[in-house]
């Protein structure tokens, strides 16, 4: 009811039906609205004239006395019927009702004889076409099959499944198909159950998988899947897209058939049946697609509206369905044809009527239709027109002011001007459709308007309406005028010095400069008034070399773009060649051939130099590695020499100690950091004894008496300060206990300094 027109609308519309041969048929149609209302019927778009066979009842319904699929003259009562209702507001057409004759064909698949071992699975099938869909029942030995037996599964498409076969299941089977048109019986088939249940292992196998189905919402889908194997396989279902099947309306028939009740569009997809061997990953699969269609239905109905003359009326009609419905518009029951002022947009969902007048007043219908069904909704357009409205504005003129501005002027209407509250100027590019039009409002005392922000070299159309509080006048005459052309924009200019007597001017490609015919290039010495040029360049040229220049002066370079409307603004750059000339004097030109040879020689020299450099680096690394290793070996030799029994410290040469101490003091200030690093390294290589600290103190004082039986120890000195003192070849006498130290031996100087 939300979308109905109060003046005329359907309460009941005819619906699709299946008629029985030689039986009466009634198609219902009920309309409400402002009387008088006239109702007529059409079949396949042709008006139905009352006759003995078909005539309209008092309530507007159509009565067919004896429905016939084919009459003697070759005509048929099958077809698409619609109901039309009309009053003085307009005309509406109902949805199309598809009428078909009830039929039933012969069976095209009959059940077949089968021999199956005990415990196995038997399947019988019969198929027959008919309208409406025949109901198929099964008989065993001329008696209806007991559907209470859970081992017997009857599927809607004429399939009988028997699982866990037993000897008593043997017999003769046939099916019976029934609809309002007829009843038919299939041929008979014998089932023989042989032997006893086998224990031989058999891989799972799917005998029959799901078939592809196309159904409508609210129907029921049955996806068949029957599997065999030993042990008996487990049948499971899933969707190929990974989405859950759900539980609402889902039921398993027999041992693995999937039934989905009350279908929705969301049930569409590819379903996979899997037969799994229990306790293993051995499986077999089969798949089938399910397509669920939905008849067209409206999400948004068109609404009846009232609009003043000259304004725009917009109707919106949004429908959904699966597949997506096609939308068609009718005007008073006839297909609506588009024009300059009637436009359809958004896949026909939006109807726009521009500059409406009294002839546009009608009932507009939106028909939404797809393969699953159709629907319609209507709305009325009322055009408001009041007596005494102003006549159209007069003498509309448009004059070009510039490339982006046009001046529009007019004179007031000739009639009914007292109630005018203002004017509206309608503006549109002449090449654009009507819906691209825009408006500018003007006060009632103004008779001209400056329209700005237009495009150069473009034609525009203008017309004007006068408005009152009761509505608008008719449109004035349309005037068309073009804006002036525009000179090109200023190009970007860059100067590059080539040498002491030449520069190169470059600029952006012409595509960024608008419409133009080419470029003009000028240049001069800055102290002169006269330019050299213009140099005319084509629009596709983006660079020009200026040669034979004087290196001692500064030059000015100017570039502009031009077209048929004149010259654009110029871009100026200044350039000096003096620095280039000075560099040329200091570095005279080279012999190119010689330079080329030198370049080759230099390249070879660079490669050789790189090889020499890499070789030097490798030798340096090896030298450092072997040198470090030698220092470690020397330290080991020193340790071995000093670890042998040595003379007491009191008999050691004090001169050597003083020398070592002096060397140590001399190096303290020069290499404190490196010394500390070497100290740590030596301590790591030659760990100190527990009395190391006391021995260090003994080394710093030549007069400290040694402890009894104390052997000489190595002090923790850096390697680069370590000295070995050459000793007397004759053995020295042992110092007496507690006696004074002997006189120092002559100092022969260090035999080797490490």
Automatic annotation (TrEMBL):
Pfam families reported for this sequence: fn3, I-set, Ig_3
Q: Which UniProt keywords apply?
A: Disulfide bond, Glycoprotein, Immunoglobulin domain, Membrane, Repeat, Signal, Transmembrane, Transmembrane helix
A single BP term in Gene Ontology: cell-cell adhesion
Parts of the chain that traverse the membrane:
606-626
Task: Indicate where this protein resides in the cell.
Answer: Membrane
Biased composition regions of type Polar residues, renumbered to the chain: 643-654, 689-703
Instruction: Classify the source by domain of life.
Output: Eukaryota
- Fetch the InterPro entries from UniProt: FN3_dom, FN3_sf, Ig-like_dom, Ig-like_dom_sf, Ig-like_fold, Ig_I-set, Ig_sub, Ig_sub2
What residue spans carry the Pro residues bias annotation?
730-747
For bias type Basic and acidic residues, the affected ranges are 663-673
Task: List, for all copies, the residue spans of the domain called Ig-like.
Answer: 8-100, 105-192, 204-287, 295-382
- Disordered, as annotated region: 643-754
UniProt membrane topology term:
Single-pass membrane protein
- GO (cellular component) term, any one: membrane
Q: Which family does it belong to?
A: Belongs to the immunoglobulin superfamily. DCC family.
Q: What is this protein called?
A: Immunoglobulin superfamily DCC subclass member 3
Q: What organism, scientifically named, is this protein from?
A: Pachyramphus minor
